[in-house]
Protein 1
Amino acid sequence: MDILKDYLAKTAGGELNREMLTFVANIDMVARQNPTIAKTIVQELIDQRSHLKLIASENFCSLPVQSAMGNLLTDKYAEGYAGNRFYAGCDNVDEIERIASKEACDLFGAQHAYVQPHSGADANLVAFWAILRKHVQTPALEKFGEKNLLNITNEQWDEIRAEMGNQKLLGMDLYSGGHLTHGYRHNASAQMFDCYNYHVDKETGLLDYDNLRQMLHEVKPLIFLIGFSAYPGNIDYAILKQYADEVGAVMMVDMAHFAGLVAGGALSGKYNPVAYADICTTTTHKTLRGPRGGMVLCTEAYAEYVDKGCPHVIGGPLPHVMAAKAIAFKEANTPEFKTYAHKIIENSKHLAASLVEKGIGVQTGTTENHIVLVDVAALGLTGRQAENALRECGLTLNRNTLPFDAHGPWYTSGLRLGTPATTTLGMGKEEMAEIADIIATVLKSVKPSLDKKGNVSKARYTIDEGVKAASIERIKGILSKFVLYPEIDTDFFAKYL
Ligand code: DSN
């Protein structure tokens, strides 16, 4: 088996397809070492190509982003930050980190960017510790007349630790669309802080600003954390910053989900958190369409604390991923990306409206961002049943809790749909209507089964086989017009798989 040689022989004399050649060369190299791993890479492309991706937190990054990620840069340790490393030989990584940070600042209009976090959860930890150090540890050290933690006594250290561990964080409840890292009890954030949660309004499914203001005044948190992974509304950061200032809270926004919408100007003015927050955190792989990773943006006042992500929380940065971030930020700073960001919202609004038209319950009846929350409990299903049934029919999406969900986070009452990936593929209004029709048809044909004890199961179900077969064909039809990475011919690999 010589994949590269076979490809070169097959294409000799033809037009050069650089993307395919690069992909083949990479797969060839991996296959020589471990054919099974090579197979899974090709198979993942085939899978992602043959299922419609509606996972709101996923996307398809560009091939240049992928190439920047897959190389020798991974071999370099570069703890510290650009120009201040704990290792020798970091000149190139310094350059990469400086470029990525500058691209990020240019893109978001941020005062400072820290591009090292490996994920959104890491970025949140970096931000938490930066805030704690600036507002608790540094003043405590000053009180002891010291600058260096290593010079204080054990008793003084205990005092600082106790104070650091007793700070209040006010974040959005997981069931209302908040994230695990915003103070959910099963996450370290809930152990680091004295956590309080705000909820969406039961009637509207949206944030109640008066209630938020009241909670801020009652709790007086050190950190007022805004941001979500399942919320279909807009958030007015201008007014929330005023409320945060009234109680002296640090306003932190986790914009992991919607950073691409901010970058592309689809969320602007009062809806742009970077213009108001003290610190914003994000992932780089969702709507932003970059490599899997995280980032912190902040005002100058927090820069020196944020830059100490290592040693506080993370170890060595991933230079290859920082390189890919630099590529992605530049891609996002283009008119094409602006169009893309606006189109994501347009598509999700069409998707929501088409679902409602088909009699499927959508939280708030619409959406203002890339997320559509579907209520499947109204159809007698759990999110788990709906998620699995739709996957069988060719759609990949995830179940999600709805506000005040009676089924809990494992089974859930809802589905979370998102349009970043389908929009990247070029889909529009027509496809959204078709997708909504497929989803509605499938969901209406799914029935819960009985479990072994004769109770209605929350996991098992039956599906109409005719509906299933027809849906698979319809999804195939859509995807045949919007091919993922069309430069890459997966058929070529058939004989090696
Ligand atoms: N897992 C991400 C999401 O799907 O929203 C957030 O961590």
Protein 2
Amino acid sequence: EIDIMKRACEISAESYIEVMKSIKPGDNEQEIEALFLYEFAKRGGRFPAYTPIVAGGEGACVLHYIENDKELAASDLILVDAGCEYKMYASDITRTFPVSGKFSDEQLQIYNIVLKANLAAIDAVKTGNSIMEPQMVSEKVITEGLVELGILSGDVNQLHKNGAFKDFYMHKVGHWLGLDVHDVGDKEEPFKPGMILTCEPGLYIREEQIGIRLENNILITNDAPIDLMSEI
Ligand code: GLY
Ligand code: MN
Ligand code: MN
């Protein structure tokens, strides 16, 4: 099962790398969706594991945006949440990147906060922990980031305790992954080697039309977690 899921992740990662090369201002979101489906199928992943989300600009702030019908502007970030299914197993990946190929300073600052949250969450995926540890770690990093950005002010621990981040990070850090993209299982079950879950913190600032999420698939082991999306 793990080998099949590794291949699903590899196909998804390779597809991102291919499609990213061709994205340009003026493309329609649904063209990008079609390119992903093509790259998946070319590698043996005929179906997506879920309806792809291809969201330029403010669409990225709508969590399950699947209209995928807008034109991309050069100043937009594009959020793509598109994973293939391979031999009936799911992969689930999100990347957010600039349509023009170059981040603005503000976009980069926010991107780096989400990247830090993603990496910190992955680090917390250890046998014996449960989803609560990456959840908390990601919330803390996002809260710190919101203070750095000047969107929140006050003591980070207190803001975290009060849930002040929830207007900007309003979903959970991840979920089990397997035959289904949101696979079955007790959400808070302690991590054991062989389990696979997603780590997908995000930061969504509607006023700035910026929504950023980074989502990787993580294999739990007795040692360090294995990031099945580390290639991208
Ligand atoms: N693609 C659905 C999710 O990230 O949970
Ligand atoms: Mn996803
Ligand atoms: Mn997910």
Protein 3
Amino acid sequence: MSPKQDGAAAQAPAPAGDPAARAAWLRAELERHNYRYYVLDEPSIPDADYDALYRELQAIEAEHPDLLTPDSPTRRVGGQPLSAFATVRHTVPMLSIRTETDTESTGAEAFDARVRRELGLGEGDAPVEYMAELKFDGLALSLRYEDGLLARAATRGDGSNGEDVTANVRTIKSIPMRLKGDAPPVLEVRGEAYMRRDDFDRLNARQREAGEKIFVNPRNTAAGAIRQLDPGITAQRPLRFFAYGLGETAGWDIPPTHSGMLDALEAFGLPVNKDRRVVRGAAGLVAFHREIGERREALPFDIDGVVYKVNRLDLQRRLGFVSREPRWAVAHKYPAQERTTTVLGIDVQVGRTGAITPVARLAPVFVGGAMVSNVTLHNQDEIERLGVLIGDTVIVRRAGDVIPEVVAVVAEQRPPGLDPAAGPLPEPYRRFVMPDKCPVCQSHVVREEGEAVARCTGGLTCKAQRKESTRHFAARRAMDIEGLGERHIDNLIEFERIASVADLYRLKLEDFLDVKRLADERDGVVPETVAQGKIATKWAENILEGIAASKERPLARFLFALGARHVGESTAKTLADWLGRLAWVRRAPLPLLRVLPDVGEVVAESIYEFFKEPRNETVIDELLRYGVVPVEAGRPLPALADKLALPVLLAALGVPKLTALRAEQLAQDLDSLDQFADASPEWLAERKLPADALASLQEFLERPGTRAQLRELSALRAELLAELPAPGEAAQSPLAGKTFVLTGSLPTLSRDEAKDMLEAAGAKVSGSVSKKTDFVVAGAEAGSKLEKALSLGVTVLDEAAMLAMLPGAANAAEPKGEQS
Ligand code: IVH
């Protein structure tokens, strides 16, 4: 009954002609790859192929809703945001474990001695068998499977009542939606949701790139992600899960040992950590504790120690509980990779988007393998949470390559009677006060409502923001200005040679040489060449060349380089691809931004505000004036036509109560947005809309500025539509009705983009190759689909050949693909 360790073997693909069989096959395939990737850590296909299977399943389910099953991988995302979590009662309470405070081997010996005493074992009796496991550092969860299907997931809460977090937990790919094998009618699995350190670092890198808040540590981030009301946000957090115990079960013969039970959970397809071992007696526990202690830094996730559990369940029952803690288990920690030190001061740093980050200056300490003298305190809330004062003794932690953090204040080290919250403080204690002026440019510092981060309002007048934004602008993935390193940027700004990134394009050789001389004077260096009475200029010429070469970069990079908050590389690419011209991106009103793929409300507002800001307008105008010419497609993506449809734009206006359905209704009576902009209350009243929607619409139209904005949107819409292929043109396109399959990763387009382009040209994009396939577009690492295409004699194209076939392409004549 138990499936094989490596997951079910791949089944022969089901024919594309039978949607039910195909959907079932796709589901099994996707879950098999999920399992290989997230549970066994052995990826089995390229991401792009996985995406193609996923999309094919999505398409089938959209076309045949009756084929949708509750365990479909497509169900992992897409839950609606909640206003609150429902309460879940744990019929079997979620207990905690006692922690052994003695972190030495004597701690393990004491536990074994206690267990033996309680069990009445004497010296001559055999050693007790234990299960030794890792103690994961995340958030405890209880997963309830009914007839093998994930029915509910809950947090621990107070142990008796937790919160229903099912929609969030579904997004965790290592948690199976359906158990493998012969699952019992009821099986509650207990375990820990956690985040790996590498996933955490990547998440923070993404956050940083988008100018978003930086998370403090993997544990808090994992716990926060599970307790998100919007499952869409949880889905973006790289969470994982390990099972370590049971809750309620029915209709299952629980194996007689804890180790047997974990093996059974593993066979059901649940992730169970490999670093677990059945050991005998105190010596076995000590050896495990020591071994894991040595490997701790190398583990991909943080642990909080190890856990020992008496292996035989009958013995567990005999030992029972004291209060809410079992006598048969204990957590054994490690001497912390933590040190105490003193906070000498709290400085603030100003980032690219003006974020002001308090940083604790510490008396240097060696912790977790490195010297630490600065630690970020993130923001005001974090300082308040810690209650840290300048002068305090604090515990600093650093694990592996994780950024060091302040864990807590050692309050006992403060003089008695000191009140951190009020009143005068004795020397050397001081409270941190977030400055109300930027320490670099003296502009006002504001903290917007609902934001944890305080920001300098100086924008590009602030030297700190200028340095950071210039670094970002020149970075390899942005304008890629070769030779212009951080040191040069800092000096150019320090000595007032550039007020904004636009000034880079006005720099002359003398500017660089002057700045170099000033910097050398400041640093007290006399370069060799100067001592010899010569002036080196080659380096500066190289930078000037680098700057000149950066004038022509693709629009997407240019937009990314501008550094608007929330506009990372992918958002920049979306804007460039869909709108096709800088001028249109600059003019795009909010509703137009909202309808673009993957642009949510926060991002749309950020883009809109950025381009409306006069300072930014000036910089962009100057860049263009100084010869920067973003390379642009010049026309929108044909798929934009759908997004510009009246009902779509009306629904995106952000009018409360104007649902998509009502927008559709309203659009039927409209020829253009202009007509809507001019709508009179009488006209609206005739629209047969429910009273609440009507009132909301009238209120919206009467808001000052609304009608003018609608006219602007209407004008831009008309302009964009005029650049798109006329309706019917796509039908006459040479691609109309042709079936394409995309495989492998294409050099410049993402799968979605290629698909959108092909579909806009009237082609069909399918997930699998058959005799009916007209073209296969193959990129790097194309696998079985390419082979199949070759064996069936289907025409294979590369990306360039595909682009050339699209209507409007420079040579749309004949496909250049290899015929095989
Ligand atoms: S067993 C009855 N095993 O530690 C025993 N707990 O205080 C119930 N934890 O928040 C827990 N790793 O989420 C157990 N291998 C492990 C664990 C573990 C982490 C957490 C658990 C709970 C706390 C127990």
Protein 4
Amino acid sequence: MHTKTIKELSDLLQAKKISATELTQWHLTRIAQSHLNAFLHVDPALSLQQAAAADVRLAGNTATPLTGIPIAHKDIFVTRDWRSTAGSKMLQNYTSPFDATVVERFNQAGTVTLGKLNCDEFAMGSSNENSFYGAVKNPWDLRAIPGGSSGGSAAALAARLTPAATGTDTGGSIRQPAALCGVTGIKPTYGRVSRFGMIAFASSLDQGGPMARTAEDCGMLLNAMAGFDARDSTSIERPAEDFNRHLQQSLKGLRIGVPREYFGPGLAADVEQAVRAALSEFEKLGATLVDISLPKTELSIPVYYVIAGAEASSNLSRFDGVRYGFRAEQYKDLSDMYQKTRAQGFGAEVKRRILVGAYVLSHGYYDAYYLQAQKIRRLISQDFQNAFTKCDVIMGPVSPTVAWDLGDKADDPVANYLADIFTLSTSLAGLPGMSIPCGFGQGEKNAQRPVGLQLIGNFFDEARLLNVAHQYQQATDWHARLPAGI
Ligand code: GLN
């Protein structure tokens, strides 16, 4: 049951060949037996209660294609019935009085929540090692990181602990873990998915999106997730659309832009080989490759770490020991209470970002760093618009290497930042980006570690990205491969 796609499970549920209760129980058992540390909170009784309600809907005529489908949410989405920690000690015992819009929409569609998924603290990281609740293991190789910050989501999907998961992507946190765990994920155009109830990291970049095993499954999830929400001031008002409406379209005549800057010396040879093989596959499917340039790619790292830090320092000021979660036990006065609470409640990476952010926003430095970064952000966005005059989609690697070993870069923040090189600019430009499995690394160590192919589209072009990814997944089987022992 756990190797089936959402589409297949949905058909079985509608045909009454399986029940939501059975399906939920099956996955809960798998979660209980797993040792990946992917889940932070499970509540089997509550999940089974939701499954029973889904079975009632399936017996009547109010079911949607997602009714009875088990799903797990990144612990960045707040939930009324489950704790929401954002991977931080600061929110260790926090339960929200409301559901995030995304969670509310899935509940309305009738999905069954299996639990909340581990992630880097406040979604800051690319290895999941910044979680206060410990790192997540990559099911393909238990020595490897799963990627981050949605590492729990990617690992749980790869280990078939859930057929569906939510993730959030500020600078790559859906695409990079999807790539390193061999699953499929899409970060929609900024503003597509409501940020209401998504614990904020960098508000001008944060975007929720679906993660699953196939493009078709991601489209089904996005259909429920996306849409205008008056409670999010940057939510985009557009008519509802079926994101899977173009799935069957042929790729004949598709122009794929291949950015020169994505194939430079920083790219590992085994990743390059897998990505180039995928590009050849697309040529067989009728697409043509176009050489393009995204000249500001390198600048996306300093620009992102200035802007994301600035917004994080502002967003995280709300964790003061009074309004939410954790408070230090011993303190002399109010300011001592703030200091001790924040010193004890936040991890090292979060503190580093708050410090950088407060610095770049401070008097005298604002013009030199923050404003400069905003200007370059605009130029990065223009690079993409120039490229899209020559091509329909852009393709390249997601991550310069396959998953590295746990601990390898844990004490080297800059090494982690550099690994974000291919995902950050898409986020800075607000464009939709996707990651699909396209092979494995090479050599004794990397042969079991997945490689992801990145697809970048113009604004609101999610349906095309899903079409392109789906056609590739019809022609290849990388997305259907299973880690050993799963
Ligand atoms: N790795 C990037 C960071 O650490 C991106 C994280 C994200 O997208 N949430 O900020």
